[in-house]
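Colleagues,

Please find the record for the three-part complex below.
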Amino acid sequence: MTVDPRFYAPSGALTLEQIAELTGAEVFGSPDTEVKGISSAANARRGDLVFLEGDGKSAPDISAEASLFVVNEPNRKYLPEGAEGLVSPLARHVHSVAALKMFRLRHIDWSGELRIDATARVHDDAVIAPGAVIGPGASVGEGTRIGANAVIGPGVQVGRNCSIGPGATVFCALLGDHVTLLAGARIGETGFGVMASPHGLSDAPHMGRVILQDHVTIGANTCIDRGVFDDTIVGERTKIDNLCQIAHNVVLGRSVLVAAFGGISGSVRVGNNSMLGGRVGIADHVKVGDGVSLAASAGLFRNIEDGETWGGTPAKPLRQWMREVAWLQKQANPKKSG
Amino acid sequence: MTVDPRFYAPSGALTLEQIAELTGAEVFGSPDTEVKGISSAANARRGDLVFLEGDGKSAPDISAEASLFVVNEPNRKYLPEGAEGLVSPLARHVHSVAALKMFRLRHIDWSGELRIDATARVHDDAVIAPGAVIGPGASVGEGTRIGANAVIGPGVQVGRNCSIGPGATVFCALLGDHVTLLAGARIGETGFGVMASPHGLSDAPHMGRVILQDHVTIGANTCIDRGVFDDTIVGERTKIDNLCQIAHNVVLGRSVLVAAFGGISGSVRVGNNSMLGGRVGIADHVKVGDGVSLAASAGLFRNIEDGETWGGTPAKPLRQWMREVAWLQKQANPKKSG
Amino acid sequence: MTVDPRFYAPSGALTLEQIAELTGAEVFGSPDTEVKGISSAANARRGDLVFLEGDGKSAPDISAEASLFVVNEPNRKYLPEGAEGLVSPLARHVHSVAALKMFRLRHIDWSGELRIDATARVHDDAVIAPGAVIGPGASVGEGTRIGANAVIGPGVQVGRNCSIGPGATVFCALLGDHVTLLAGARIGETGFGVMASPHGLSDAPHMGRVILQDHVTIGANTCIDRGVFDDTIVGERTKIDNLCQIAHNVVLGRSVLVAAFGGISGSVRVGNNSMLGGRVGIADHVKVGDGVSLAASAGLFRNIEDGETWGGTPAKPLRQWMREVAWLQKQANPKKSG
């Protein structure tokens, strides 16, 4: 995906040689080749710089258009024909240096006293409570209510008849119509991505967005991180309870229910009409089908097909988990069961 | 219970016929009968409209005064003699349409620049930090401190010598004296109640309140949802840690301790002097007695009598759980135990 | 440790006799001896008042300089030679009364309309977003960004090139350089410490601080409580995800990773380069070595040596836990395994 200029100000293309000078990485292909965008490998368009990292044991997902790469040695074998780019043992770090040079988060420079920025578009029939702050280029639709001391960041688009709770904060996000955020919801913060850098652990930059579709409800103090370079998406009529964590690049389908303390790790997919009980956790990259039920406090580490009901940690089919619970109780407590 | 006009502005009675016209439900009894209030079935007064939904397999809890019902077919058999009302397969939806027509949350219309509303009553000896916002009709008692950027919603009553933390938000709530809310606490948001509507999943309206009695302490970023039509109540000297979730209609007794990540689902009752370790979860409608201890990370799905100590998920008496843990360890690791 | 006057205004020394009059405790030693400071027993300097409480079955950790004590009967035997002080069955309560008489949290008195206090030192190159509030005596370094509606409390020191997220609140804390707090992070709130008082359960006062070293990142809505009388410390380049709870007096080493919903109880120590998966809980006073890994949803109640990998609840070495999980599954589901 292309970085959205509503949230990230582009500061011009870089040549591979310029990136090499900034980072010490080694160029392959033409040093004058220009990098015009930044992306994940899976969703790159021509001219976007992507990175491949890891031990090289499994083939990465690479878009057919991808042409410019930062790569470590073990992943060179996966480069498509005609690829150009840079080689470095710290491929993600090099990619990040280029990304941060080419794009600047607009809200980093947001300052001043003006509560509602002069360039924000707020509909006449929107209701803005005291202390709410609306950033440059943001948009608030008809009939929408922004609660007291809430924050709508630069470039954020809020549709019609939405309700943004008091003290909630929304950045790098597009909200449909009839979206409800309760108090203290945190939409569009950077995700938890830690990478190796020459100086030790560093935060990986996140340049994606959050998309909340129509009729989505997000509970109090729930966090929905923006994508790394792609989007975090919550589908129509999906309802998320208080104190949940939805990580970067997650895609939740339509009419999904997530009860309190739900924790959904990076890049998880959940199908339509699935139900997650309280305190359910799902490990990263797991795929959950449509119409799945996860019992309260399940910890899921594997993909689940449509229509299944699972529970336990590690999660397994509910009946199997219940059989294990009952069997253990009987075996370990002979007097009671005898 | 009657809807509290400090938080919900009444907009007049409706006849059964008017509700039928709005929703397509079918009237039984006199179409001209007026609905004057909205309530849960269990706590209705004469003239309140209540709903009965579900599969009808168990008898609902109905107040002796209840006279006006929205009901689905399977629950018609539970209607008391002389009942009037409406029939619909989406009984809760019909009830909600009427509720939202008859009462309007006051904070929906709160707007403007005034940090401390002209109609708020703030004691001269209260201390209001910069950025704090206090809504119409709210009251702040002697010696109470409102932290920076905190929000006290319309009609909220805060007693004497309370401390409201920075960035905390309080709506639809009555606070006693010496109540402490730490930073980012979310009091009185709408609960997680999802119902079927003609368009798909919808948020069920919540028109109850939160009551925090004297000397209650609520941790940072903890959420206490308001009741659906009744109250969520936290008893005197009960202390709740950070990042806990207390759902709608919960009643906690006096001097209860809830450690971090405690999750108490809707309509749970917890007796006096009970202690919940970190990350304890309790399923909805469960009743916990006085003086109960729940070990850290317990997941409770059943009622517990006074004085019991339980642990594990699903929770059971602590000794039994520990016996199972020890037995499993011994059986599965023969070398270590041999 | 000495109470930091940037956060707590000292109001003068008390004699033992004065404390006895306030509390009804009984003096031993000279009634005219002056108490000049307040501390934990383990880190007291000469002239600090400390307390010893509990059943006296294990010897408390007492600094060699400690000289002034509030003690209950069972702990009198641990008093060093020449000790003076007070005896009371509610030793911690008596100590708290003295502490609150001698020191007053500065932010309790913070009021007014001034968003950036006249006595705050904000570097010219810092960026302060709309609605942010900065208290008396606070300091914000070069290149640091304070997000919209964030709160920097009285006396808080924020270094250079930090990013304080929107709606975050920071009290009683010292932040190094390049520290990042995401939206809604709660730094320096009082911890969860409940003590017996003559009136029932009371909140124990916390007079310590939070120290966040260089390059620390704290996730959205994560809470880091200040120490009771000592400090809560997060080491250089340690990265903490959203919705975590770090309790009073915790010390995390360098480059520690804590994934979402991590819960670290009071006085826990975690060594350098350790990794905690999602939803890991650690019981109070546990010591975790360097380079330890804890699998997602582990509940740890025991100390762990360097380099270990543990999982499960109660946590044990990962291989052992997995063996138990596999064994139970096989035994309880004979058809599948047969």
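Residues 318-332 of chain B form the longest helix (15 residues).

Comments are welcome before we finalize the supplementary table.
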